[in-house]
Design goal:
The complex is a heterodimer of chains A (335) and B (324). Chain A contains 14 helices and 6 strands. By secondary structure, chain A is mainly alpha-helical. In chain A, 51% of the residues are buried. Chain B is mainly alpha-helical and 324 residues long. Chain B has one domain: Orthogonal Bundle (ABC transporter involved in vitamin B12 uptake, BtuC). Chain B is built from 14 helices and 4 strands. In chain B, strands 1-4 form a two-stranded antiparallel ribbon. In chain B, strands 2-3 form a two-stranded antiparallel sheet. In chain B, strand 2 and strand 3 form a beta hairpin. Chains A and B meet through helix 5, helix 11, helix 13 and helix 14 of A and helix 5, helix 6 and helix 14 of B.
Chain lengths: 335, 324
């Protein structure tokens, strides 16, 4: 701790991901022709950076919910499946009913919320390990999505729904605005009220919390439900983007991206202190990494391999053992 | 009830459910209670049994391995590519694959142990690593046409039982699965390593105070799980006679489900591979019934498995509560 006194701790945790992002940007400047090309067409920008922003928004939306879950010492592996469920619900509503657009949104978010509540119930009430509790929905969830769509890929022509992810406001794609607004709202709620402190306290030591009169179960239930709603929102964005609901592939591997974004952002997997800004930076970093790989002809099937190495590298840097080593090196150097 | 008896409640429940499900199936569908159905039950679930045995070790030690399905796919495509594209003899290819699987598991264990990272995170990364590696080896599935695989492994080595009109042939994969369960049962029951796995899963501090080598136990379970995953991949490859990099997605849940349904506690320390074997049979039987029913879509299987796991985990929770 002594060696970090010169900087605010929040800046220290952000230093690694920002440095990595800068490194990636420099790499792309040098080796990826056309990575920074942007053109203006029909009143909105097109180009790789915009693309990155658009997809990073989806990861970021999920990562915001995931941040709170991880801060309580849990994890949610079911977000990818919940994205599929919410997309399926939205697609069914716009194709099979005359429901108004707000109602469609509400239904998709509610589907995510219910899924999240199920996770929360298993973790908070039945005290299952979060990995196992959410693993059940991770696999069963895609089955549920298949049941909703009857095993088909549902395509739709719905102006309002498809414009959600395919239009821009002030040249920035709408999903990015949604992610930013969500992050701001959650940031204000957790930092301007005691909510954030409660979440961190539960993650630090839930038993101590209970003795101190904090309802740790309600907080856990709440964060899982919220994470489900976030996944539902991401599902809306995804199905709006491709104008279809694909129960098999919607949100596939999104759980790894989201967890990775949170961990890169400096939130510890053992719970406790969390950083929403870090998660946003993490989401952008991951999407830039993914896009870089695609532009260097790494196929989408192989892409998980380098990503897995990136996860391990970041986790290694943040593991208690390595942190202690580095801290030891610095203290010896300064003394 | 005594504490020991309560521990056996889950496995007895599994056994009862297994019998009840079989009887229900026999009553509902003609031709259900036949040697052929039982044979297919064994053949179709041999690779699940092998994978679940590996998962039993990890779960008994109180950890979790999410890389099972991807390691199976990676082994499967690796073996197929070695045989078909690099002219390696099948037995050599299988040996290489098993060694690679064990090594992969060991490395995961080392990362968990040395960096003190949570097992789920490391094996989740391992899951994506192995899946990417599988597609890197070969992006499409490869059919295996090598005569040794088709004629010797999958034909001459099959056991023909004198049942029914033309006899029932049981392929080598079933023998492998039964052998894998038997070896694991002996290791867990009667070796120093096996007992330390239980001890570590039950209470790590007590195990340490008893002077057990807990580090070896925690590393060993991941090496064993990697090895068994690779073996499951080999069994899967023989069963399909092809390698597929996209195979076995989400198979780790099936393995974990079989372990849990077989009465092993998810927090570790209590359970057996015999129970896991029963769990595998129960899962297979549910699948068979959904197939026999005919008008239920296949994703109902996933949902039923999910619900069954939940029920068993809840049952375990109740037992743990009574213990305290």
């Amino acid at each position: 701790m002594g060696s970090e006194k010169r900087f605010h701790p929040a800046i220290m945790t952000l230093a690694w991901p920002v440095a990595a992002l800068a490194l990636l940007v420099v790499f792309n400047l040098a080796f990826t022709p056309g990575f920074f090309g942007i053109e203006l067409r029909d009143g909105r920008f097109f180009g790789t950076p915009i693309d990155v922003l658009n997809h990073a928004a989806k990861v970021a939306i999920v990562a915001i919910g995931m941040t709170l879950v991880i801060a309580t010492g849990g994890v949610d592996l079911s977000v990818g499946a919940v994205v599929a469920i919410s997309g399926a619900v939205a697609a069914m509503f716009v194709t099979r009913s005359q429901a108004s657009f707000p109602l469609v949104i509400l239904a998709a978010l509610a589907a995510g919320g219910v899924a999240g509540l199920c996770n929360g119930f298993l973790v908070a009430r039945l005290r299952l390990q979060p990995i196992v509790a959410t693993l059940v929905l991770m696999v069963a969830g895609r089955g549920v999505a298949q049941l909703i769509t009857d095993g088909l890929i549902i395509t739709f022509e719905h102006r309002a729904l498809s414009s959600l992810a395919n239009t821009a406001f002030a040249f920035i794609p709408i999903p990015a605005w949604i992610a930013l607004a969500l992050a701001t709202a959650v940031g204000l709620f957790t930092r301007r009220t005691a909510a954030g402190m409660f979440v961190e306290a539960v993650g630090d030591n839930d038993r101590a919390c209970r003795y101190a009169g904090v309802n740790d179960r309600a907080i856990k239930l709440g964060v899982y439900a919220f994470c489900g709603v976030c996944a539902g929102l991401a599902g809306l964005v995804e199905c709006s983007y491709i104008k279809a609901a694909d129960a098999n592939n919607a949100g596939l591997f999104l759980e790894l991206d989201a967890i990775l974004a949170v961990v890169i952002g400096g939130t510890s997997l053992s719970g406790g202190r969390f950083s929403l800004t870090g998660s946003l930076v993490g989401a952008i970093l991951i999407q830039t990494l993914t896009k870089t790989m695609y532009m260097h002809d790494v196929s989408a099937d192989v892409a998980p391999l380098p990503k897995a190495i990136a996860v391990l590298a970041v986790c290694t840097l943040q593991s208690p053992v390595v942190k202690d080593r580095i801290a030891g090196m610095f203290s010896r150097g300064s003394a | 009830m005594t504490r020991v008896a309560r521990r056996h409640v889950p496995i007895l429940t599994t056994f009862t459910l297994l019998i009840a499900t079989f009887l229900a199936g026999s009553a509902a569908y003609t031709n259900f209670a036949s040697v052929g159905v039982v044979r297919n039950l064994l053949v179709d679930n041999a690779f699940l049994a092998v994978a679940a045995v590996g998962a039993t070790f990890v779960i008994l030690s109180g950890a979790i391995d999410l890389s099972v399905g991807s390691v199976m796919a990676c082994t499967s495509i690796g073996v197929a590519a070695l045989i078909e594209h690099h002219a390696v003899h099948p037995l050599a290819a299988i040996t290489i694959a098993l060694a690679a699987g064990g090594l992969f598991g060991l490395v995961q264990g080392l990362i968990i142990e040395l960096l003190r990272l949570p097992p789920f995170l490391v094996t989740l990364a391992g899951m994506f690593f192995a899946r990417g590696a599988a597609f890197l080896i070969h992006p499409q599935s490869i059919g295996i046409k090598h005569p040794f695989v088709a004629d010797v492994l999958n034909d001459q080595l099959s056991l023909v039982l004198p049942l029914g009109d033309r006899g029932i042939s049981v392929p080598i994969t079933v023998d492998v699965a039964i052998f894998a369960i038997a070896v694991a049962a002996v290791v867990l029951r009667s070796t120093r390593f096996g007992r330390s796995v239980y001890a570590v899963g039950d209470d790590e501090n007590s195990a340490l105070l008893m002077g057990l080598n807990i580090r070896a136990a925690r590393l060993g379970v991941f090496a064993i799980s990697g090895f068994y995953s690779a073996l499951a991949g080999v069994v899967f490859t023989l069963y399909q006679q092809s390698g597929d990099p996209a195979a076995c997605k989400g198979f780790e849940l099936d393995a974990i489900a079989a372990v849990v349904i077989g009465g092993t506690l998810l927090r570790g320390g209590v359970g057996s591979v015999l129970g896991t074997g029963l769990g595998v049979l129960l899962l297979g039987l549910i699948q068979t019934i959904i197939t026999f029913q005919g008008n239920l879509s296949s994703w109902w299987t996933r949902i039923v498995i999910g619900l069954l796991v939940l029920a068993f985990v809840a049952l375990q929770g109740q037992i743990a509560k009574q213990d305290r």
